[in-house]
Amino acid sequence: MDPTIILLKKGEACEFKLTVTPLCSSKLNDKITIVCQSINSGKEEVGYLKFKGETEITTKLDIDEIIFDNKIGEGTSGIVFKGRFREHTVAIKDMKDRSYNIKIKEEFEKEVSMLDKFRSDYIIYFYGSVLFKNKRYLVTEYAEHGSIRNLFSLKKEAIPIKLRIKFMIDAANGIQYLHVNGILHRDIKPDNILVLFLSEDVQINCKLTDFGSSRNINTLMTNMTFTKGIGTPVYMAPELLSQKHYKKEADIYSFAVTMYECFKWGEAYDREKFVYIWNIADFVISGKRLQQINEIPEPIYKLICGCWKQNPKDRLVIEQVLDRLQLLYKVK
């Protein structure tokens, strides 16, 4: 408020300016307290100036507009709740790390900045974030059916193979959008493909999510392997397990294992045979791959084989994968 204090003689009036600088998207409905005091008598009178308004929509959200409902999931980095933001049903990721330092704040802001740039029908919609004291929330579109991983508990017959092909088409469209824009996902797996609809009559059934590991190709200058917490070993390409640089081809390999699990409708690697993570790593680094099983038709298995080849340069690019999936969908 300018001026904050003014001396008035009897019968005089003044103008003052009130400036409100919002720190996030919010709806304002508040009041300013104005105190008048007589110099002679010392008597005080209190008045109120009411004001209301609404800011432009940005991705910096007001913590008071975020309403938590029930918990729907939990990962290594955060707990996910179903909730509400204004008139929208949303998913709210509450980041577990409550420490507050410059590095964590900068990493969180980098992730938010990247999410804010994604605008694709095949990428889960990002409403915004909350950074308030030691609380950090990411607010995104809500997927009613959870991830593909969540659906593995259903019988295979409940999700026809044609619908599963459609799931993979939608995911491939999301990966293509990222790759065209110079972004590597770096953690493609069934857990990070969310299912919005189970009907074949809709245009989009699935969307990609979880971009905490995503990076711009041009700034990817360091080795990223599972020992450094990037990606999930089951879905990691042999070159990453050998501690080489992450490139687009590694995303394609991850998608190959994801497709294998989607059509098998369960975990790719038998836990009785592959007891430890390093059993999988040794298997993959040596050039071995999982065999075709009855649940996976030969044309689909051939497509998977084209995506998980040992030499990254021999793998299909995402445009080729998408073309073949679309052809398989038409045949089915």
From TrEMBL:
Record Pfam families: Pkinase
Gene3D superfamilies hit by this protein: Phosphorylase Kinase, domain 1 (3.30.200.20), Transferase(Phosphotransferase) domain 1 (1.10.510.10)
Domain of life per record: Eukaryota
Broad class of enzyme this protein falls into: transferase
Keywords assigned: ATP-binding, Kinase, Nucleotide-binding, Serine/threonine-protein kinase, Transferase
EC number in record: 2.7.11.25
Keyword 4Fe-4S: no
Keyword Transferase: yes
Positions that bind ATP: K93
Protein kinase domain location: 66-328
Entry GO MF terms: ATP binding; MAP kinase kinase kinase activity
PANTHER family per UniProt: PALMITOYLTRANSFERASE, PROTEIN KINASE DOMAIN CONTAINING PROTEIN
Family classification: Belongs to the protein kinase superfamily.
Protein name: Serine/threonine protein kinase HT1, putative
Native organism taxonomy: Eukaryota, Amoebozoa, Evosea, Archamoebae, Mastigamoebida
